[in-house]
Amino acid sequence: MNNKRFIKIGLVSISDRASSGIYEDKGIPSLKEWLAEALISSFETEEIVISDDQHLIEKTLIDLVDNKHCELIFTTGGTGPTKRDVTPEATLNIADKEMPGFGEQMRQISLKFVPTAILSRQVAVIRKKSLIVNLPGQPKAIKQTLEGLKDEQDNITVPGIFAAIPYCIDLIDGPYIETNEAVIKVFRPKK
Q1: Cα–Cα distance between 133 and 125 in angstroms, integer?
Q2: What is the pLDDT of residue 20?
Q3: Is 82 exposed, middle or buried (0-12, 13-18, 19+ CB in 10 A)?
Q4: Domain residues of the chain, as ranges?
Q5: Is the terminal CB of the chain with fewer CB neighbours within 10 Å at N or C?
């Protein structure tokens, strides 16, 4: 296991309109805010807003893994069924392994709120020693999918995907990630 306590996280917002300045990106700021609350481990981010262009998305993800050495990458946007939504295709094209459970769980969480969650095509993959996860585009949905759903007593009713991310990173020999358990409790099997 890698004992490094520092993680480099890539944050990629994929939106034609945000990348051209038509509106302000809300995905990256909400992700940074959530990570600041959730992580005890030190981290730094590489942030980029790009258009819905498959070649550009692929090039950006490859650069974040191969050159900037991000161990975890979150993308937001571009996962719907429209012609311009190509984030999953780009992500799968640069992958060594697909991790289908992440997309399944994100849709499971979103289905608690909207029946159109089945239209979402989020995927997660491993490239080299990095985990790449396509998140929803809306800040509220980003938080829900990462954190999970809680009842009135703050008990988890549907686990969020981040509960599994630190252990996944352990398994691919990445840095050991610790979290604020009041925000997200990580699951690691007992040794």
Answers
A1: 7
A2: 82
A3: exposed
A4: 6-171
A5: C
